[in-house]
């Protein structure tokens, strides 16, 4: 019997209608494979607005970030400084890490997410040398951000607008410094005008803080130390702080009257809060000040950000636990093991050991020097005005407010007083 070899059998041909239907199904399956899911097609992006107020060796930057993509469970903002001399010193509303020129900011626990369409505001104090340009590129979770585009205004016929006038001392100002200091004072003020890019627009000098409070100033103490503080030591620190601040106010008073319209012969200093890591270091149980425990920023405890004028220069303290009366204009930041000091419109930072050694001194010169920066007075590291060799704002050359410092302070008042109606 012979056997026929059978090859592979072909499937029977489909009728034309069924063949078209099968082709359509195959095309749909292919499309489902090739078209990405809605999740994969979610648009991602961000907008960043960066502004900075700069002075000779330092600056304060504000960064507003808007998430125009999907919700982020953990946000991370990165940028590179253009100059190696730009350094973050103190930041807020995030944890800052700088490696060379690269800076990374991440959200703190409980504040790490960023909803779609939401914005967050960051900021930091920095130092610079050489140049201080704004970063050109920001990345949010690896996505390059754009700068917000302002809306296009409707066409308007051109109309002349007056240029804002630079405040100048009024006629009849009692500007009568000692003749030997006049040239140096003129040089110092011209230097301020040449190096402060927002001299008259900046609105958080100590002058502004005192005026906003109607003649007083509020402080928070940031105690960056495990050293115990008794009620007696607390009160001595408060008294010493008030005594040093008064020395600057006294420089504006002549024969019991404010010089050149300065309205306050005395400016009370109120310490409204203490911030610590561990409540046990504070050896008192009265309620004379608010106590903030465990809120750490930049490695140091801080009083409630909602109470900070530095962060709420619009005067909105609605989130402050103690209300507007318990807001603080500046911080006295006391750091274990620190030498030297730092200061600005945010307050003063000095070493704990130095403060304890100097607590009952008539002049705590590092603290006085840093307070001077709050009023706008500059450092003089690389030049000295003519006719003067030693004065407090030239660090290390004097241990108290000198006549030159006093007249520099008065020069600031006579140039700024018009903004307060004097």
TrEMBL record:
Bilayer-crossing regions: none
> Which biological processes are named by the entry's GO terms?
carbohydrate metabolic process
Query: Could you tell me where the Pro residues compositional bias lies?
Result: 148-167
Family annotation (InterPro entries): CBD2, CBM2/CBM3_carb-bd_dom_sf, CBM2_carb-bd_dom_sf
Alphabetized PROSITE patterns for the sequence: CBM2 (PS51173)
Question: Which GO-annotated molecular functions does the record name?
Answer: hydrolase activity, hydrolyzing O-glycosyl compounds; polysaccharide binding
Q: Which branch of life, at top level?
A: Bacteria
Q: Where is this region: Disordered?
A: 141-179
What SUPFAM superfamilies does UniProt report for this protein, alphabetically? Carbohydrate-binding domain, Metalloproteases ('zincins'), catalytic domain
Pfam annotation, one family: CBM_2
Ranges for domain CBM2 = 39-148
State the name under which the record lists this protein.
Cellulose binding domain-containing protein
Tell me the classification of the organism that encodes this protein.
Answer: Bacteria, Bacillati, Actinomycetota, Actinomycetes, Streptosporangiales
């Amino acid at each position: 019997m012979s056997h026929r070899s059978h090859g592979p059998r072909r499937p029977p041909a489909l009728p034309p209608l069924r063949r078209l239907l099968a082709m359509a199904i195959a095309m749909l399956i292919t499309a489902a494979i090739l078209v990405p899911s809605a999740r994969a097609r979610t648009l991602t992006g961000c907008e960043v607005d960066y502004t900075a107020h700069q002075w000779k060796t330092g600056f304060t930057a504000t960064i507003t970030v808007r998430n125009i993509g999907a919700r982020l469970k953990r946000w991370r903002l990165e940028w590179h400084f253009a100059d190696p001399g730009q350094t973050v010193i103190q930041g807020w509303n995030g944890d800052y890490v700088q490696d060379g020129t690269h800076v990374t900011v991440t959200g703190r626990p409980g504040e790490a997410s960023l909803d779609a369409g939401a914005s967050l505001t960051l900021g930091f104090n920095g130092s610079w040398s050489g140049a201080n340009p704004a970063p050109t590129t920001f990345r949010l979770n690896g996505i390059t951000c754009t700068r917000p585009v302002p809306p296009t205004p409707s066409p308007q016929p051109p109309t002349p607008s007056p240029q804002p006038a630079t405040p100048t001392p009024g006629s009849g100002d009692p500007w009568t410094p000692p003749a030997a200091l006049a040239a140096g004072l003129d040089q110092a003020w011209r230097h301020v005008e040449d190096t402060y890019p927002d001299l008259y627009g900046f609105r958080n000098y100590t002058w502004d803080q005192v005026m906003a409070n109607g003649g007083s100033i509020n402080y928070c103490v940031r105690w960056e130390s495990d050293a115990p503080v008794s009620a007696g030591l607390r009160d001595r620190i408060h008294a010493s702080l008030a005594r040093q601040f008064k020395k600057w106010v006294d420089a504006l008073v002549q024969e019991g009257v404010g010089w050149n319209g300065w309205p306050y012969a005395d400016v009370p200093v109120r310490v409204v809060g203490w911030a610590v890591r561990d409540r046990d270091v504070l050896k008192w149980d009265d309620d004379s000040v608010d106590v903030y425990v465990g809120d750490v920023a930049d490695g140091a405890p801080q009083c409630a950000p909602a109470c900070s004028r530095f962060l709420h220069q619009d005067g909105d303290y609605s989130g402050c636990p103690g209300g507007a009366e318990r807001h603080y204009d500046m911080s006295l930041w006391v750091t274990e093991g620190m030498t030297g000091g730092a200061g600005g419109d945010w307050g003063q930072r000095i070493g704990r050991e130095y403060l304890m050694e100097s607590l009952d001194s008539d002049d705590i010169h590092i603290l006085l020097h840093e307070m001077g920066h709050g009023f706008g007075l500059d450092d003089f590291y690389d030049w000295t005005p003519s006719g003067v060799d030693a004065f407090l704002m030239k660090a290390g050359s004097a241990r108290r407010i000198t006549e030159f410092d006093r007249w520099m302070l008065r020069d600031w008042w006579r140039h700024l007083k018009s903004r307060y109606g004097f």
